[in-house]
Each structure stands twice: as structure tokens, then as C-alpha cells.
Amino acid sequence: MKNTFVLDLQKYSGVREGLAWILGREYKDFEYLLARYMFYDEGELTLEYIEDKIKIDWGSMDLKNLWIKVYHFTTRANEEEAFVDICNLFYLLSNDTEFREFFKSHGVEFYLDKLQLMANGEVYNFGDVKNSMNEALEWIHTKLYKDSEVWGFVRVLDINEYNTDFPERPEFITNVAELLKDGTLLLDDWNEKYGKPYVIEFKQPFYSIQISSNCMVYKNDFMRKEYLDEEEFEAKQDQYELELKRGLFSLLLAIFMDNVSRYGVSELANNDDEDRKGLFKHREVERLYGGFEQTVCAVAPKNVNIPSSQILKVWEFEDFQKNARKNNGYLN
Question: Which end of the chain is more exposed for a tag (fewer CB within 10 A), N or C?
Fold first, then answer.
């Protein structure tokens, strides 16, 4: 598609490029404003502050031309098998797949249309999950019927802070193993056959995913906030689009300023006095933005698989971890 832009929130450079894509010709004014802010101005560098200082042409920002990189953490038998369609959990367990057969070989069978799971000959009903007092079953129910979509991250610095099971295995494997009399057999078998951790980098149209961030307001949240029904929402579509654009800009700005708090601003100073003022403001920026939104999730729509044609790269897990911190000012 002509004039498309692929946004990468994982890298500081990608965030800067995203701000430049949104601001267009005004990006140079933004850089000048940032330098002025770091040496002279008071307050917080918020979207409202920026809108007061420079003109942002929201109308020229076409979200239909925007794609975004997503990073999906998983395990595979080898790197070659990572370059295949990324399928949602419900699809994998509702169709004739190697994933489903793996569980069947350990006495675990899924009957998702009947809301049932059989493990070691015992039948579990997902309809009774709230009364089961079985934590593992509750997690399995949640992942199948509430969070079965393809999940990933648009930004993550350390996956171990988010998911203690990975890189050993996906959480779902642990949950199923906890139902079995001897779950270690299933875990050992998984680790032997499919236990190598990878990060699959793929792209998606911006409109096809939802980013989990306080900055972003999506349709259902917008309708609740404005007390709208479907017909009234259609009449306010332009207002919703503007809020979506402003939310994305605010997210980019927060990540950008978080990085500024580590990279420093001495190179912007023209003299010693500005250098001293910049160092003082630098501490304020670190206090306001340091550590903001280090982990930002993204989720594809329900029942949607990611085609292999949209996979951009497959990372070795350790390489990804190292680059994640290096690209955001934590390592030299």
C-alpha cells in the first residue's frame, strides 16, 4: 500500500520516527520545542502543552496507512517452525493440529463446543469453573474463552518481569500440566519437542489490533465514556478517530520522554548555563516519565490468525532480550 508506515515502539529510534510520521513538517518545530523545554520552560511536556506551542495537523494523519510491529513470545521445535502462521489458542484446540495431538498423547482432550476438557479420564466442565475451586482449570477457561486471541507486545524490555513461565514454556502448558496426576511428564515432553524460546516479530494494520495502554481509548471505552449507542457512535466517528490519534501520540510521547530521561540532553546545550538548566530539568523528566509503560501488550481480534506472510523476523530469545535493553538506553 502506498505511503504506509510501520511503527516500531520497541526501539527509541522507532518512536522518534513515529512522532515524525505524525507531525510531518512540524517535527522540526517539536525538536526545537523540546530543546526550549529542557532549558527554559516549566511544567510537563504533555500533548496539551505541545498543541499550545505548535500546530498538529491531525487531519493529515491517516491511520489506514499505519501498521505496527508486534512481538509474539513462544516456543517452537526449531527456528524454521517459527516461520508459520501464528494461530490463536481456540483454533489450535478446535482443529486437527499437532498442538492438539500433543495433549491427546498425554490423556488430555478438549471438547470446546461442549465446554469440556477431559484429563486422565476425568471430565471437567468449563460451565462450572466458578464453583470448581480449581485454579488451573480457571486459567485454562480464561485463556480459551476470554483471552484466546493472539497476544504480543508492541513494547517489552524484559519478558521475565511479565511472565515467569517463559522462556521455559507458554503459561497454558503449565496450566494443563497442573491438572494431571504427573504433569512433569507433559512438561518434560514439551521441553524436549517444542521447548526452544523465540520471539516472532510481525506487523499488523493499526486498526486490526488493540494496544493495552491507559493512553489508548477504543470504541467500547469511548461509547461508555460518551454514553453512546451504536447509532450515536456513528455520528461521532470523527471525534473517536481524533481521540485515537491523540492517544497514540500521547503513548509515543511518554515512551520518547522516558528514553530522554536516560539519554541526556547535554548535546543540546549552547553554553554552560543551559547545560546546568538541562541537567536540572533532566531530573524532573526522569521523575515524571522514568520507567513509563515498559511493557505494552497488543491483542489481535478474536478468531484471527496471523499469516506467515506478515512475519518480519524471528529472534533468538536471548538476542531479543539484549537488544530490547540496548535499543532503549539501558546498555551501551
Answer: C
Structure confidence at residue 182 (pLDDT): 86
Query: What pTM did the predictor assign?
Result: 0.89
C-alpha cell recorded at residue 283: 531530573
Contact 308, 85 (CB under 8 A): yes
Burial class (CB in 10 A: 0-12, 13-18, 19+), 196: middle
Q: Single out the residue of 300, 208, 293, 310 nearest to residue 250, CA to CA.
A: 293
| Angle in degrees, 0-180, between the axes of helices 272-289 and 237-263, rounded to the nearest 10 | 120
**Spans in the chain with pLDDT lower than 70:** 1-2, 41-43, 131-132, 262-270, 272, 274-284, 286-293, 329-332
The cell numbers describing 20, all together, are: 515524525
Are residues 112 and 144 in contact, defined by beta-carbon separation less than 8 angstroms?
yes
If 0-12 CB within 10 Å is exposed, 13-18 middle and 19+ buried, where does residue 82 land? buried
Q: How high is the pLDDT of residue 1?
A: 46
Q: Classify residue 306 by its DSSP letter.
A: B
Contact between residue 154 and residue 70 where contact means Cβ atoms under 8 Å apart: yes
**CA 283, CA 280: separation in Å to the nearest integer?**
5
Report H helices in the chain. 12-23, 27-39, 47-53, 89-94, 98-104, 135-145, 171-177, 183-194, 219-226, 230-235, 237-263, 272-289, 317-326
What span, in angstroms and rounded, lies between the C-alpha atoms of 178 and 237? Answer: 46
Dump the DSSP string for 160-221: GGT-SSTTTS-HHHHHHHTTSTTHHHHHHHHHHHH-EEEEEEEEEEGGG-EEE-TT---HHH
| Exposure class string for 27-42: b at 16+ Cβ within 10 A, else e | beebeebbbebbbeee
154 burial class (0-12, 13-18, 19+ CB within 10 angstroms)?
A: buried
Residue owning grid cell 495537523: 57
